[in-house]
Amino acid sequence: YFRDGAYCQDYHPDAIVEWHAFLASRYTTLDALNAAHRATHASFEDCAAPTRFDARDADGLALHLDWAAFRERMIVGSLHKMRTRLERAGMDGVPVVHNMPLGDGGLPLSLPGLEQVTDLVGFDYYHGAASFLPADQVNLLVAQTLREAFGPDWQRVWKTLQSDLPSLLT
Question: Which residues, including other chains, have CB under 8 Å from residue 152's CB and lie 6 or more apart?
């Protein structure tokens, strides 16, 4: 899961079929897709999934914003399927928790979207003590966005701070 950038995954043929279905449901008509993407696709299947951010101006943004929305739908949908399978297996009383990496690449995912299919959402803190200042901002975002604030790795953070803090202060 730590391949969390918008263009890191998933380009499996099944995912690309879903991408085209996403575009068809989002735009309904090919004319609407072509107008939004400033393109001349002959079919929804002609719209290739972007593999890197290459927009040169505002006209190129629609494709990338659509890809990010599609990726979010895929991730949330996958977690929903996992939760449903756990519940069918008799584990419906067990809380469903999802940890997210801090993600320097910008995870294409909204916290409220995740919260719809999980009980708790938190961030993993696998960085050294020097990186914890941005974690403060992430914690504020979590606390202000979600029903429950959850810090799954704060014990690790505290141990790292205890060992690294003296060297950071000198």
Answer: 97, 99, 122, 123, 124
